[in-house]
Amino acid sequence: MQDDPNKTDAIRIDPRMYLGIMVFRWKLIAICFLYCLLAGVVYLEFVSTQYLTRAVIMIYRDPNTAIAGQSHLWEESQTHVELLQSDPFNDRVSSALSAAWAAKVGRPADLKPAISINRIRGASGISIAMSIQNQYPAFARAYIDRMIAEFHIEREAVKDFSSKAASNPSIERCSKRSCTKLT
Predict the structure, then answer these.
(1) Does residue 180 contact residue 173 with C-beta atoms inside 8 Å?
(2) Would you say residue 74 has pLDDT above 50?
(3) Could you say which of 59, 93, 98, 171 would form a disulfide bridge with 126 (CB–CB 3.0 to 4.6 Å)?
(4) How far apart are CA 6 and CA 10, in angstroms?
(5) pTM for the full model?
């Protein structure tokens, strides 16, 4: 009689076998458990705690300044994201905080943390979410607060410059290749 390869026999699990293993090998099981527990404690002791600090900026757009024919409101949020991620902007923020936080944070490289910036769609306008993950939650909060303050200053400067440029026809208009003075 030949065994059929397609025929599957139900394999029965004998709980007595596993009970016997636990009874006779309990010392080995306890030692393995204690080693795993020790490894977890050592890992938690030597790895620094990381905190996540988040903020959301809502950018108001005056409907009177909308350009005719512009249907994509979200294209302009890229400018804000690029401003928040730019190196000169983050250098200004970190230099403003360096006097107060250099001794607490330690290395100068830690004064410029990695920032994650994302756009959020909303019915009321443009929102930008910022988050910093590091081991100093108070510094991350101060960094984000200073970023928001610098962002408002930069945005007001750009708004003032553009309104003055629109009202003053004798301003120099520059392109990548040349500058010409309009009169």
Answers:
(1) yes
(2) no
(3) 59
(4) 13
(5) 0.62
